[in-house]
Amino acid sequence: MIDDRLGEIRRTDDGCDLIFERRLSQPIETVWAALTVPERISEWLLTKTEVDLRVGGRFALEWVDEAYSMEGVITELDPPRLIAWTWPHAQHPNSVVRWELTAEASGCRLVLTQTDMRPPHLISVSAGWHAYLECLPGAAAPEITRCTAERERELRARYEPLVPA
Q1: pLDDT tens digit string along 63-78?
Q2: 31 and 101 in contact (C-beta within 8 Å)?
């Protein structure tokens, strides 16, 4: 079942933070692998991925079909509970993506935060993370769910009214 709750957009002194919370039925170790093992990341983010899993290590993603890439640096690491990396971009040069996992009896709780975001780019980033999070449980299980550009477009319309002008 897809969790269709919208992410929260929280105003800060530096812009906006985007926060998603999800409960997944997979154990924390399985979800951790989907977030940190390049082959597993590629299954749900649909990217070429390079990860040097250490603080100060490289975290690079390349969406070949979209001609977009990102090269960040891991800033926090506490396996299998926490990983954070920078996501430098012209629209949000100081942004950090932070994944927190907490084991629960029925699987795990995931909190994704991306900091220092700015409108209007925040709309597409919100819709993108939402769509990708719908695919994450498949990467942490035997079946793989592919994210689609159509789904991301649908979600943009839902996020537009939430983003401050």
Answers
A1: 877 788 999 999 999 9
A2: yes
Right CATH for 13-160 from 3.30.460.10, 1.10.443.10, 3.40.630.30, 3.30.530.20: 3.30.530.20
Beta strands in 26-164 (DSSP E): 48-51, 58-63, 68-78, 82-86, 96-104, 107-117
DSSP 8-state secondary structure symbol assigned to residue 160 = G
**Contact between residue 112 and residue 99 where contact means Cβ atoms under 8 Å apart:** yes
Radius of gyration of the chain (CA): 15
User: Is the model more confident about 36 or about 43?
Assistant: 36
**How high is the pLDDT of residue 91?**
87
